[in-house]
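seq/struct pair 1
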Amino acid sequence: MRANQRAVLKVVVLVPTAILGALLAIGPGGLVSYSPATRVGVNSLLAYWIAIPLVIAVITFRSSQLRAHLVTAAAFAFPVIMHIGKAAYNLLLLDIPEIQHTPINTAADTTELLLLSFLLLCVVLCYSRSVLLDSPKQRVAFASLILLLPLAIRGLLWFLVFPNLSSLGLKTLSWSLVIVGALALTSTLAVLPRVKSKELPLDKGYFASAILLLVIAIIALGFHASTGRPGWEFAETMQMGGFLVLSLATGIPYMRRAGYGRRPAYGLVLGMILLFYLPLVITIAIESSGLSLLPPVANFLAYAIIHVGAGSLSAMMAVLLYLYSRHKFSWTHYPLMLIFGLWASLTVALLVAFTLPSFSVLGEPSGIYIVGAIVTLALLITAARYEVDPPKRKPKVSRLVAALIVSVALTLLGETVNQVFLLVNPSFIGSLLGEAVELVASLAVMLAFTYLIFLLARGSHGEMSASLYVTLLLAIWILPSVLKSYYSVWTLGWFVSEILLLMGIVAGPPILAWLYIKALEESKEMHTRSSLFADLLMHDVTNYNQVLMTSLELLGSEGVHTEQRKRLASDGKQIISFAEQLIQNVRLLTETMRLKEKPLEPTNLVSAFVAALDHFSQKVGSDAVVVEFDPEEAEAAVLANQLIVHVFLNILYYALERSRHGVTIKSTIRLTEELGDDYWEVRISAPGVVADMKANPMESQLRSGGSLGLVAAQKMLEVFRGTLNVIDDSGESDNGVIYVIRLPAIKD
């Protein structure tokens, strides 16, 4: 099944499923709540889901300063800002039993979708024609215009236009906005085929599905404005579905391009999506069942048990991460250590302040959560900077301790200022302004976690690194702060947030201990492989030395004809070329761990194979071997780097070693499919006999007198998530040995 067919299938399946699911959830399911807490949860969720394409656009822009990347980041930043603002606004209305959705709200929602529609149209238009923004001033001015203009239009209409319109005027304006927005979204679909996916990781099937869901959402708002049917709840649910699918449209291709397989990519992105869906599910369950009306019940013992456990486990995570970093060093680990240490210290401070009224006369300290979130945000930004540009010197323990002390001191100072301010200004006691600030800070931290997770995934080459695991665990830990922002102390929602806090941190030490054991096993495996490499190296050096000495002795003998001397000289030249390649393989294999640090980028296999052929012909000469290359396509895009050329060189050298002088090697590149995934397959056929590599390549090559080059080729292919199979076909046909390389294909 080709890409276009899969895209159409996604649209056909996803859009009707989303409509049916929304109707069932709102109708028979009754999963609707109009409480302010639910509105906070819904808008927080919308902000987070649309933040996934935002952070991917920002990361992509850092790699390539294209105008399209900047427009994409600004386009997705607009709904993020709007929904965070709505969440904070609804939190200030917690004293109201239910939120009423007025005609002005409908017109405002329609305006936001209209502005987003135009921004998405600008995105696809910009990607149809790539333009670089070289000047920093130009980038800042352009981003400011794209971001601030929609916000200014939305604010102008909200404060100056909507309040002065009659009911009929609001209906007319809403339908005008609906028509223009639907046309903009339809135009986006029309331009979508021209978007170049190699510049932006984008699944066009998911993207088209998201656009159609937004079309349905904006049309539903128009009918709601004029007739009241369907309800605005249906339009909002369609918008939620559109934002969810947009996160899939960018998140899945990004993870695939980072080297993850289909299942790990879906697992990681869907896990992040569902993770932040958890607070909304809990909120809807509590609000729709009436459990929020239960009277608060104080339980200091439960509070103490949860926070003592969370603080102890957090401190344990900081220590384990430090020990792990000593074995597998990464600068990114150190800001994460400080976050664990910070929250371990603050947990103790919260326990003391909350259980001893003399320390905190106003109940649970909110300043600790707010300032702690801000300090955490700063540490996450530092971790992201270290991931991109790590310092050259390793940190000292004394500096880590000093940084932790400063972080804790700043947080406690913030709470002290908060307590003094409230005592001096008692009118602010009980105000929801602090909770609103806490919510915004928590959402900002979640955005930073999302950015760091995708940034770490880009450099992990398809493997779940320790930094990625730890960052995900920290994201789980900050999640309860969203619930705490709109559930007061001792309520059911507050207790659920405390339990989530403990559950999130309990998973940390076992996972980190498992990673540490895994690292030790990898170290042992590397030692075993080093011994195998040494044996293979000795084998190759001995063979080359014997052949070269034999050639030199024959050249020094009398009675050797001129043609024979030319042949001996050619053989000597080949041996020297083999030795050069051997030295290159030794260098690559000794830097096995560094291979994974090299960035992967879209690479044309056809061009890489031609480059390998040019180098190979220069070294061994055209009379020694003839290589026929007949690719089925001129473009064969995979994720790789310049090392892919060495893969082809090693196989060609190995094939030449196992063949006679003047042989013909045939090669081709074709597209294949397996389990719904596309692969580029390189087949190199050469005379000769070789051991099958399918079982245990390195050991089989060692036992059969194999070459270090073939092992090096397979080791490099592992970095690109590729495979190498060597098939002995000499007994069944004239193909001899077939070397089959398979690499995951990426879209152009």
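seq/struct pair 2
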Amino acid sequence: MKYSSLVMGLAALAVPMLTNGAEVKTELLESYAKHSQYLDVKISPRGDYLAATSRNEEGSVLLTVLDINESKILSITQGNGRESVSSFQWANNERLIMTMAREIGSLDAPVPTGEIFAMNADGSNQVILTGPRSSDGNYEFAQVVDYLPEDPEAIMIYTRSFFSKEPYLDLYTMKVTSGRKRSEGRIPLRAYASTNVQVVLDSDGVSRMVLGIDPNEKNKTVILGRDGANKDWYEVDSYYETDGGFVPLLMLPGTDQVLGLSDSQSDTRSLSVLDLSTKQETVMAEHPNTDLMPIMSVKNGRANEVIGAAFEYNGIDTFFFDDVEDKDYARLVQSLIATFPGQSVGINSSTRDNRKLIVRVESVNAPAKFYLFDRDKRALTPIAAAKPWLDGHTIPTTQTIVYKSRDGLDIHALLTLPNGKEAKDLPLILLPHGGPHGIRDSMGGMDSDAKVLAEHGYAVLQPNFRGSGGFGRKFMELGYKNWGTTMINDMTDGVMHLVKEKIADPDRVCVYGASYGGYAAVQSGIREPDLYKCIVGFVGVYDLNLMYEQGDISEAQAGRNYLDQVLPSDSEGRTEQSPIDNVDKLKAPVFIIQGGADIRVPEEHAFRLRDALKEREHPYEWLYKKGEGHGFYKPENNVERWQKMLAFFEEHIGD
């Protein structure tokens, strides 16, 4: 397909395939390192404009607005310094709402600035609506609660003071032209540091349910509800994570029922409905082995009806309910999903009348692409691609596999194989994900690390070891306190499974990971010193005791509660599972990669590991980028990182 002229400058770049695993082609690395041309695309309510986010060369996110009818760019907006556009939405057909965030690393979520901006599609009438730079000058953090599609001139926000460590939240309806606010009351839950408060509105724009976390009660979840505007709040439920509970998503229109995800009655997260009038929860659907997410119809700019569910187990899958009212919308979604088998298909936005929709399609084997679907014309037109320069290039294929852990668990994993090579006796890179809890390696999005390694002749294994998310509460909790023991065993068992299947050469195995994955890489080399021939740790945690002293997790009580929950309970136990205290067991050379601006895993972890290796005269390599955070943003730094990693792997397990 050719891309529409609506999107400017999407020139495809032909990328040569590698024919020799030992050869590093910089052009290919640059193609994978290059920032996505488009991150998100949304259509205006009447269908006149497209707004799209993209990254510049420095990694900051900017917003571009396109006039569909005139096929021209109307405006380009970006933040100051390292500020990026964090979220955006059409308030009405002419006006956009934006929030900003500061990027702190490619592996970590951006930190919101707390300011809300508004502007017209052509970039005019720009207004800072909240914060110290706004007209009222209040030192408050603000967040959009709801875009109020029924009121095109206003949005719902909450604010909290910059100066209070445990602030309450104040709700306001705010004009999108001036920032003038009308109070909608105070939420009787505190927004503690490192926690967030979720607010759920009904179809009339009235806040009816709120959820918060209480770090003074070991991160207990508290849910409050009320029966309408100006009514008293009451407790609906409270629970600890280990007990399971209900997480609200939205109120079903015209009812007192709240749709949510729940593991209160099941191990995995089901689709459930909680009736505020009775406080009774009813399970709509559940999968015995994996979590569900709802598929909703949309009406007048709001989610309207649950028409099905999406899930990922042995691949990306969906199911749909028969007894739905909006059968046309359900058929539309099913048709779009059938058009792109094996891919994640989502409706990003639509016109108010639902006649035109922006559809996002992506998978582990294909970068995201955006399509405009015109229901009247029954036409699906490609309008933008995240990485158009990879079009026409044969990307190595990733597939799902399942193997047994040594204690009998089913471990789901992703396996990426190099093109043009028989899947036999291949050099293997074990690539554990970060997190580690609540995170999973998914078929829903492409992992550039895995693809780059496979492009150079390596098989790549990404196991969803115990502790990973998406497979139920019990599976995740099996990883607690076991970062360096049974979680590592699951990874090793995956390697041995591929050896047994004769896919991997047992004499040519290395391990690489980032964040927790960096920890797991070094810890794997400690536990299995004769298996791994080399180790790469990228922004990794190497001292579990240091996590209580440095880094943003330990700065708040909620973060310390999390560490208490998932790490060994005492200093001795953490020492036993800390790579920094066990480097004498290593045999394989170690390559340490670190960013100097990392606040999640401060550079001290890397320095301590380097010093311990140096003291023992253990072979190591070092790459340090002062201005990078938790993961590298700059394409040239990722190219350099891959070049050095590939040379390192070639030296130790190459042909």
